[in-house]
Structure prediction request, 370 residues.
Amino acid sequence: MTRYAHIVGWGMSVPRRVLTNGDLAQMVDTSEDWILSRTGIRERHIAEPDQTTASLATDAARQALLLAGLTPLQIDLIIVATSSPEHIFPATACLVQDRLGATHAGAFDLSAACTGFIYALAVATQMIATGGYERALVIGAETLSRIVNWQDRATCVLFGDGAGAFVLQASAQEGGLLAHTMHSDGSGGDLLSLPAGGSRFPTSKETVEKGLHYVSMNGPEVYRFATRVMVSATREVTRKAGIRLRDIDRIVPHQANLRIIEMAAKSLGLPLERFVVNVDRYGNTSTASIPIAVCEAVEAGKIKPGNRIVLVGFGAGLTWGSAMIEWVIAGQGRQAAWWRSGFFLLRILARMRSWLLQAQRRVESFFWRG
Ligand code: UT7
Prediction:
């Protein structure tokens, strides 16, 4: 029997602090008009000092679980797609697992830059389809503000922080993620990278002095690549799913630059209105951009049950990919007050469990004689 992966919950979290183009014009040599006309971005959200990739990811995941009417204990798998993980290791996904109290879940990070959320959806769907897993949390989360050089006008105006999450659940009913594509071309790895801090250039005084711990990008080359692959990946996934392009209700593209989205719409011969666009309010939140856009589109009634939607993205690697989704379940969330309160209790229990496990480890190591 074919098993499908349905999206039964979705959630997003963005920091409260907003940085406008006007604010940026006072920080670097740029103007409100340049940023808006070249990118379509008006403002972006920036994490407060106490917010991190894991905290935003956990908030988004809680929203998604709440809507799905599921507890963290029912989750088998957590994948966090991120380009700004909490650490190189442990995986941000493990920190999220601990904070949620998802005691039965395996957890790992997935690195495919801005295409990461699509890659993670594809991986989770396959794991559900093959029968090993029932429910997965797929999260895209970023605090790019921590790895951007705030003196480099070519990059700092583009990015923002945030997180988005989906809960996937196995179902025998046709729908959910119907087809996907994943592509890569490492020959373009130098076009968009964070050069230092890994094994190639371990962090040193020199790497910091040269600013190699910041995002480095060849904007025009990435732009050229993006306009090409957005079109090819959209066409490819519709072919794979056997659905005509004109029968697609919505396209949710990676939110990097409005001009890239406009060019893709033109090349595909589709009206821009069919595309979900929110880059003006969030900037480029990398792996989080697609799930945040989906959450807002569902909220605004732009994605409805029965709709066929294409998610399409591109990013560092180079990577690109797409997913065809039939939006079947409208959310079965238990929004009742008792469910919300119960969820809050679970949050406290998860924190207590984490403390107890740490304390137990300390006591054991005190008595342990190897
Ligand atoms: O998730 C994937 C992430 N990356 C992307 O999607 C980026 C794709 N690329 C782009 O979106 C665009 O290439 C950018 C928005 C980054 C740049 O736009 P552009 O139209 O390609 O500009 P450019 O890099 O060709 O630069 C044009 C001019 C240059 O000045 P000169 O040499 O013509 O005098 C830049 O120095 O604009 C200048 N410039 C700026 N001026 C004011 C670059 N950044 C700024 C800025 N403010 N922030």
Remarks:
- The domain at 4-335 is CATH 3.40.47.10 (Peroxisomal Thiolase; Chain A, domain 1).
- DSSP finds twelve helices and 13 strands in the chain.
- The chain has a mean pLDDT of 95.
- Residues 30, 34-35, 38-39, 114, 153-154, 157, 192, 217, 219-220, 222-223, 226, 256-257, 284, 286, 315 surround oxa(dethia)-CoA (CB under 6 Å).
